[in-house]
C-alpha cells in the first residue's frame, strides 16, 4: 500500500519533519488511527495537511461535505470531527479493501451516523448526487482529477471550496515529459491539464499550497462553471 509520492516531499525534508513533528497532534482515538496508519505505511493525508485541514474547516464551518477517495476513512472522520456536530460527510470509494477498512474506522470512532459511504465508481455515483456541497475534498486517482473536475464544480455551491490533494507528483509535474517514466506519463499529462484549467479559469479562484505532495484550494465564483479545454 506504500505510495512512493508521499515519501518524496516537495519542500526541504527538514521543514517537512518540523511540520509533522512539532505541530499539534490529533488527539484521542482518531490520533491513534493516524499513528497506526503511518507506522504501517497506509496512505493517508500527511500530518501537515491534517493540521491545515483542521484550520480550514474551523474557518469555513461546512455543513455538507463530499469526499472522493475514502481510503481507510481517516480524512472523512477528520472532516466529520472538525467541521462540527451538525456537519455530514458523504464519501465515495470503489476499492473493497479500503471500504472494509473505512467501515472498521467508522465503527471504532462511532461516527457512522455522521458519514455516508457510497461504494462504487465515482463517475457512476456523481450523477446521483445533487448537492450543493459546501466543501469537497478530492483525493482519488490523480489521472481522474481533470475528468472529475466538472462534476465537482457542479456539486459545489457558489463560494464553496474544493480541496484537491497530491497535485505535484513529488515535484515532477513540471518536468519535461521525456524525463518522466513511461508508466507515469498519463498521470503527468492529465495533472498538467488539471493545473492549467484551475489556474486560468475566470470563474475559479485557486491557491496552490506545497503541503505533502501539493494541495490545490479552489473557490467557485459563479453559479455555473463550464470547463472547456483548449487543444
TrEMBL record:
Pfam families tied to this protein: Methyltransf_3
GO MF entries: methyltransferase activity
Catalytic activity reported: 5-hydroxyuridine(34) in tRNA + S-adenosyl-L-methionine = 5-methoxyuridine(34) in tRNA + S-adenosyl-L-homocysteine + H(+)
Residues that, per the record, bind S-adenosyl-L-methionine: 45, 75, 93, 139
Presence of keyword Transferase: yes
Domain of life: Bacteria
Stored InterPro entries: Cation-dep_OMT, SAM-dependent_MTases_sf, SAM_O-MeTrfase, TrmR_methyltr
EC number: 2.1.1.-
Keywords on record: Methyltransferase, S-adenosyl-L-methionine, Transferase, tRNA processing
The keyword Magnesium is annotated on this UniProt entry: no
UniProt-listed Gene3D superfamilies: Vaccinia Virus protein VP39 (3.40.50.150)
Top-rank EC class of the record's enzyme: transferase
GO terms for biological process, alphabetical: methylation
Known partners and oligomeric status: Homodimer.
Function, as annotated: Catalyzes the methylation of 5-hydroxyuridine (ho5U) to form 5-methoxyuridine (mo5U) at position 34 in tRNAs.
Family, per entry: Belongs to the class I-like SAM-binding methyltransferase superfamily. Cation-dependent O-methyltransferase family.
Name the record gives this protein: tRNA 5-hydroxyuridine methyltransferase
Species the sequence originates in: Enterococcus eurekensis
Organism placement in taxonomy: Bacteria, Bacillati, Bacillota, Bacilli, Lactobacillales
Amino acid at each position: 500500500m506504500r505510495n512512493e509520492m508521499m515519501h518524496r516531499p516537495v519542500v526541504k525534508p527538514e521543514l517537512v519533519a518540523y511540520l509533522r513533528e512539532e505541530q499539534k497532534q490529533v488527539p484521542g482515538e482518531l490520533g491513534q488511527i493516524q499513528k497506526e496508519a503511518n507506522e504501517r505505511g497506509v496512505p493517508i493525508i500527511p500530518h501537515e495537511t491534517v493540521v491545515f485541514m483542521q484550520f480550514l474547516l474551523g474557518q469555513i464551518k461546512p455543513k455538507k461535505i463530499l469526499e472522493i477517495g475514502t481510503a481507510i476513512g481517516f480524512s472523512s472522520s477528520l472532516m466529520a470531527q472538525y467541521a462540527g456536530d451538525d456537519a455530514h460527510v458523504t464519501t465515495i470509494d470503489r476499492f473493497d479493501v479500503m471500504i472494509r477498512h473505512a467501515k472498521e474506522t467508522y465503527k471504532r470512532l462511532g461516527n457512522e451516523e455522521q458519514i455516508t459511504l457510497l461504494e462504487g465508481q465515482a463517475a457512476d455515483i456523481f450523477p446521483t448526487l445533487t448537492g450543493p456541497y459546501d466543501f469537497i475534498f478530492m483525493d482519488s486517482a490523480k489521472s481522474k482529477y481533470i475528468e472529475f473536475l466538472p462534476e465537482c464544480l457542479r456539486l459545489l455551491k457558489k463560494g464553496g471550496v474544493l480541496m484537491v490533494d497530491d497535485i505535484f507528483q513529488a515535484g515532477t509535474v513540471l518536468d519535461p515529459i521525456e524525463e518522466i517514466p513511461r508508466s507515469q506519463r498519463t498521470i503527468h499529462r492529465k495533472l498538467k491539464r488539471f493545473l492549467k484549467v484551475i489556474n486560468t479559469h475566470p470563474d475559479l479562484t485557486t491557491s496552490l499550497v506545497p503541503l505533502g505532495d501539493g494541495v490545490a484550494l479552489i473557490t467557485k465564483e459563479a453559479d455555473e462553471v463550464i470547463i472547456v479545454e483548449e487543444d
